[in-house]
Specification:
The structure holds two protein chains of two kinds. Chain A has helices at 33-44, 69-77; strands at 9-16, 23-29, 50-57. By secondary structure, chain A is α+β, with helices and mostly antiparallel strands. Chain A has a three-stranded antiparallel β-sheet, with helices on one face. The model of chain A has no long low-confidence stretch (mean pLDDT 83). Chain B has helices spanning 6-28, 37-69, 75-80, 91-94, 100-121, 127-155, 159-176, 184-191, 202-215, 238-246, 248-252. By secondary structure, chain B is mainly alpha-helical. Classes of the chains: A alpha+beta, B mainly alpha. Chain A binds chain B through residues 1, 4, 7, 28-31, 34-35, 38-39, 41-43, 46, and chain B through 35-39, 41-42, 45, 142, 145-146, 149, 153-154, 157-158, 161.
Chain lengths: 96, 258
């Protein structure tokens, strides 16, 4: 077997008991998806954290560059009409 | 149907408790030494599951002992104040960790026997036994999946991992069948509908083991001699050493609290 350092890295996403979406919880090493799933179960869900697990190879995640922060995000802040803060929300509507 | 005498039930509960307890102790020897951080956590999680199962069986054994003699030992006394000759665990689980192949093969042989036994005990006429077994079965179902996975990965892995797995299998095989050896204690509980006839579980156990070994390209050892003795307190030399470490604190500082 290869050494742990050669095992590919996986990103782990867990959907919690009451959560609606999977949240990134961390990463781990595993040789394939099946082992990543088992390891995720043991490393991240042993205290009743989750009801569903996604595992994704880290190399398959394409991240935005920190250098592109201004170009991507800055314009959003000065367009106040994009933030729907003017509307009263009924209490019955959850998860907005 | 007459209820099994408490004496037989007590012995049976000790057997159910001691194997997971001793295997948990063996697995915790791997803490900080696992082949990868993830596997270190995963294997010792299994140990923690087993410790929890042992505690449930001990708690019930303690109640039965109270019913019997009015002078019951609690969980700690049963785990930490008995000598090797009083332990009822399978010889398989006290075998040393060896290399990772030995640890995995030991777990593999044990997990399948446990799964079959627990799935029967979950239908026990004793509601308490059934409840403990049903809870433990969920954990052991996962242990089986993990063990199968590792047996196949390592058996059908590199030439070196295959060689080590075959060596471990050959070395531990004679301990694998002890779980299916039955005696008077079993007979009393089978009669009362509390326990299944363990001897009948050997064939399905072999079938499950052989299927995984085939996937793992490992050869099932042909010699079916079964080394027995654990059920009667006759253990291999390894148990005393294990207990000296596991019981040290309670032996040196009885009732220590912190």
């Amino acid at each position: 077997m290869s050494t742990p350092g050669e095992w590919p890295l996986w990103e782990i996403f867990i959907r919690s008991q009451h959560g609606l979406a999977h949240k990134h919880v961390g990463s781990l090493h595993a040789v394939d998806a099946a082992m990543a799933m088992q390891n995720a179960r043991d490393v991240y869900t042993r205290r009743n954290e989750g009801v569903s697990i996604w595992v994704v190879r880290s190399m398959d995640i394409h991240a935005s560059s920190p250098d592109a922060r201004d170009a991507l995000f800055a314009p959003a802040n000065d367009k106040i009409y994009r933030h729907p803060t003017f509307f009263p929300m009924p209490d019955e509507v959850k998860h907005l | 149907m007459t209820p099994a005498p408490d004496r037989a039930l007590f012995q049976y509960l000790l057997r159910q408790a001691d194997s997971p307890l001793i295997l948990a102790q063996r697995l915790c020897e791997w803490i900080g030494h696992g082949p990868a951080l993830e596997e270190d956590i995963a294997l010792t999680n299994v140990g923690l599951d087993l410790l929890g199962q042992a505690r449930m069986w001990f708690a019930y054994a303690s109640e039965v002992e109270a019913r019997m003699s009015g002078n019951a030992r609690d969980e700690d006394a049963l785990a930490f104040r008995r000598d090797a000759g009083e332990f009822r665990n399978l010889l398989l689980v006290e075998q040393p960790n060896g290399d990772y192949a030995h640890t995995i093969v030991r777990q593999f042989l044990f997990d399948h026997a446990q799964w079959l036994l627990l799935s029967q005990l979950a239908r026990s006429s004793d509601a308490r036994v059934a409840a403990i077994a049903a809870k433990a079965l969920k954990e052991v179902t996962y242990h089986v999946e993990r063990s199968d996975d590792w047996v196949i990965r390592l058996g059908d892995g590199t030439a070196e991992s295959h060689r080590r797995m075959q060596r471990a299998l050959d070395a531990l095989w004679m301990y694998g069948g002890e779980a299916f050896v039955v005696d008077d204690v079993d007979a009393a509980l089978v009669g009362a509908g509390i326990a299944p006839d363990a001897a009948a579980l050997r064939a399905p156990w072999l079938a499950r083991i052989e299927a995984v070994l085939a996937d793992a390209t490992l050869a099932r050892p042909q010699d079916d001699f079964v080394q027995r003795g654990g059920r009667d307190g006759r253990h291999t030399e390894h148990l005393g050493h294990l207990l000296s470490e596991m019981q040290f604190l309670q032996r040196s500082y009885p009732d220590a609290r912190w």
